[in-house]
Design goal:
13 helices; 447 residues; alpha+beta; single chain
């Protein structure tokens, strides 16, 4: 054995063995296959980033060095500051709401038989492009309740509890006994019991009269009471009908409110029947008859979703509609890996479902929730399509975000230097969030 040992010693240290790749592929072959991808990566990612960094230090024409003037504009230009503020709002609310909804959907769909179908419906908006979603929600948020779904629902709920007026454009015609009064109309003279009062109005198209309206009838006088008729004093056709008199083809103002006013106080009131007739008690003797302003208020037209104050929350709602399904699918995948025995143990120990959800399910899903939230934060930093499509021109300045301002500076206002500075600034904002996400993913792989 000694000679063999000596021979081995004299031979010197053994040469290190070359590490083979997991797949057994040689490094040269692997590099050749990766080369096209690296070329594309350099041409489509690395070069544009480098060019944007260089361009951000030059003026609008590109032939003069501007130093940090373009970056100074990021904090002095009103449009960019508004965009930066809106990006902060987006980063705080959009990911958190989408993640919270995804968590709720993922947990609840585990308990129903049709959970898979529900997940499919919630995830389906992900198959729609941002452009298509923007067009859809531009219509959803339309101010006209006959076109916009959001306002149609809102107006329907409102009118259930506060009925809108059917006569917003009604007003007295020629030789009318009525005169304007605090948004409504009042008779010039006082009325007496036993009289029949005519209150003619015009201004409402026949096809816009209430469905309950019937042919107007002249009210007959009644002893000890005041009667009258409020009607649409208009008949189609030249020379047909008599002004100030109830004609057979004219309609009564069904539901019109009439008040008897003495010394500025309402002493009696009545509502016109479907044929426009009304009756007031004897207390109205010597009073003036008033048609209050509530009869003529404009109908409730819903909420100005795309106005300056609500446009950003409205667009965030459209984003959540699209991305809540993405959050739900990832969280559901994480939920599938949660040990069921831990949940059952908590229930056996007396915890109710809310306590199990809050103290067991959510902590176990914390890594998944963090990945989803951070991924959505990166996504909203680049949001452009929805804001550009949904926000109308009148409120686009109020809904502005950095990606949209980049487009406007670079293509609409002819300031590519500032646009490049915004692009670099966006990159600097995305990199820390992206690194945080990568570190978390690596930790998960090590576990």
């Amino acid at each position: 054995m000694a000679p063999a040992t000596a021979a081995g010693a004299s031979a010197g240290p053994a040469a290190p063995r070359r590490r083979k790749s997991v797949t057994g592929t040689r490094r040269t072959v692997a590099a050749l296959f990766l080369l096209p991808a690296l070329v594309l990566l350099g041409a489509l990612v690395v070069y544009p980033i480098g060019y944007s960094v260089v361009r951000s230090f030059f003026n609008a024409s590109g032939d003069g060095f501007a130093g940090f003037d373009n970056y100074e504009a990021l904090f002095t230009d009103d449009g960019i500051r508004t965009a930066l503020k809106n990006n902060v709002i987006w980063m705080v609310f959009a990911p958190s709401v989408a993640t919270a909804l995804g968590l709720v959907f993922a947990v609840l769909t585990e308990r129903v038989r049709w959970g898979t179908a529900f997940k499919l419906v919630v995830f389906m908006p992900m198959a729609i492009s941002m452009l298509a979603a923007g067009i859809i929600f531009r219509l959803v948020y339309d101010q006209d309740p006959d076109r916009g779904v959001a306002n149609a629902v809102w107006v329907g709920v409102h009118d259930t509890f506060a009925q809108s007026s059917a006569f917003p454009k009604a007003h007295p015609g020629r030789d009318s006994p009525l005169k304007p009064d605090q948004g409504g109309f009042i008779t010039s003279a006082t009325v007496r019991t036993g009289e029949s009062v005519a209150l003619p109005l015009v201004g409402v198209a026949p096809d816009q009269m209430p469905k309950s309206a019937k042919r107007a009838v002249r009210a007959e006088p009644q002893p000890g009471r005041i009667t009258g008729t409020a009607w649409q004093d208009f008949t189609r056709g030249k020379g047909v009908g008599k002004l100030g008199a109830v004609d057979p083809s004219e309609f009564g103002y069904a539901g019109m409110r009439i008040e008897a006013v003495k010394d500025g106080k309402v002493v009696a009131s009545a509502k016109a029947a479907d044929d426009g007739t009304f009756t007031l008690p004897a207390q109205a003797d010597g009073a003036q008859l008033r048609l209050p302003a509530s009869n003529f208020k404009a109908p409730y037209n819903g909420v100005d979703w795309l106005g300056p104050s609500l446009v950003t929350p409205a667009i965030i709602g459209a984003y959540v509609w699209m991305w809540a399904g993405f959050a739900m699918v990832l969280i559901a995948a994480g939920l599938a890996g949660v040990p069921r025995e831990l949940l059952e143990a908590a229930r056996v120990d007396g915890a109710n479902e809310w306590q199990v959800f809050r103290r067991v399910t959510v902590p176990l899903l914390a890594p998944v929730l963090a990945v989803v939230a951070v991924t959505l934060m990166i996504n909203v930093l680049k949001i452009f399509d929805l804001v550009f499509i949904i926000a109308p021109g009148s409120s686009q300045d109020d809904a502005n975000v950095l990606a949209l301002e980049l487009y406007r500076k670079g293509f609409s206002e002819g300031q590519p230097g500032i646009a490049s500075a915004i692009a670099v600034f966006l990159l600097l904002l995305v990199i820390p969030v992206m690194l945080f996400n990568m570190r978390r993913l690596r930790r998960e792989v090590r576990r």
